[in-house]
Amino acid sequence: MAIERPDAAQLHHLASQLHLQLSDEEAAEYLALMQPNLDAYDLIDELSDEMPPVNYPRQQGYRPAGEENALNAWYYKSEVKGATEGRLIGKTVALKDNIALAGVPMMNGATSLEGHVPLFDATVVTRLLDAGATILGKATCEHFCLSGGSHTSDPAPVQNPWRQGYSAGGSSSGSAALVAAGEVDMAIGCDQGGSIRIPSAFCGTYGMKPTHGLVPYTGIMPIEATIDHAGPITATVADNALMLEVMAGPDGLDPRQYMSRGGNYSAALGKGVKGLKIGILTEGFQLPNLQPDVALKVRNAVAKLENLGAVVGEISVPGHRLAAALWSPIGCEGLTMQMMHGNGMGFNWEGQYDVALLDKHAAWRDHADSLSPSLKICMLIGQYGLSRYHGRFYAKAQNIARRARADYDRALGDFDLLVMPTVPITAQPLPEPDCSITEYISRAFEMIGNTAALDVTGHPAMSVPCGIVDGLPVGMMLVGRHYAESTIYQAAAAFEASGDWKQL
């Protein structure tokens, strides 16, 4: 089937979009010269797409309501049974709803994407199923994943399982809530500014943001390729390490995976922390909204690690604040170009494109006013940087990011791990539906002061539950060298084994 050819009027419009002025004679000449290129488009249109195979049967499922979805943490339920043997036999999994599960709807928290049904499974989905896991469905996530609070998802907020009316954290809100509530053993989250670790801290789960590129992002809707991470959210350290073992390693389809890595992370679980050097990151305890009780719980947890044999000291990493600042141009300009102008996929990278997702998401322009304020503020910042400064601050921030990463690497040359509060606060009340734009946006980003930096530098970072303040969980964040997830698991497992974190 031939693609539509532009006429002279359409060509004049195209030229104006490119800041070109063509005479009618020039337009006619260009139209004739374009035809052989458009013939190539015809050829591509006739060919079948290249997509990974779908290996396990499943039904479309249904959207649960009422008591079956009291936390609003499920978007869709659809049971998909994996292989009959494997390392994850008996384990149940929820997928964040920006992850493709073929044949099951995916909304990514936004009504503008409602009705999209992926045609292939994300790589991480295939790997979990091949290992024998049973997927129970799609977990609610925040509006295009642009919120650290759980109030931005369409059609309703995700409730914290510890306290109704309070935030579960975001943007992997449903993933953490379902694990914390015991509805699944494991969940996949994705993290560009803290979206695995924030809900894990608020809900009392173990959430690992691995080294950038360790887990393939193939089949997951991107935000910005240089800060896209996927990782496990679980109720135990052992399950977290096991899940990462299954998901990690190159798939040949994701150019973020510039090094071939993976590991036997479970082997680190029984090693203890004797002699392990842990640096208390000074800047991580200096956030202006840090609750004193949260800081105290984290310091008490570090003291427990010290009692278990770790060697503890203070360390300043000025690059921590720098990396947090760099997130604004990288995150906002990057997402505006890739996720919005690039229709969810972007350009200039080799990898598996989801063409159907691109087609569906392109219609966001027809529903732009319905986008969440948390996404709109990022788009407005990003578009300003792109329009007024031509992307120079995005480019400069990417260059300077190497400086921030090197500052972390310097500190991690002296210490095996760095530690700080995952987030400065405990879960906060959900905003009212008619709240101001200011409150809506503030509640979406008030907690990212420590988490966003590690998305820019790419270091692995894990939220470990370490206590309760006023009936709500507190998270301690452990940060390691690139591809040193085993060291993080080593410390997390020792801390977990030392006593019930809920009693600390």
UniProtKB/TrEMBL annotation:
One of its GO terms (molecular function) is amidase activity. Residues 72-488 form the Amidase domain. Signal peptide: none annotated. Keywords: Hydrolase, Plasmid. It holds the Pfam family Amidase. SUPFAM superfamilies: Amidase signature (AS) enzymes. Gene3D superfamilies: Amidase signature (AS) domain (3.90.1300.10), Glu-tRNAGln amidotransferase C subunit, N-terminal domain (1.10.20.60). Its EC number is 3.5.1.4. PANTHER family: AMIDASE, TRANSAMIDASE. This is Amidase. It comes from Pantoea phytobeneficialis.
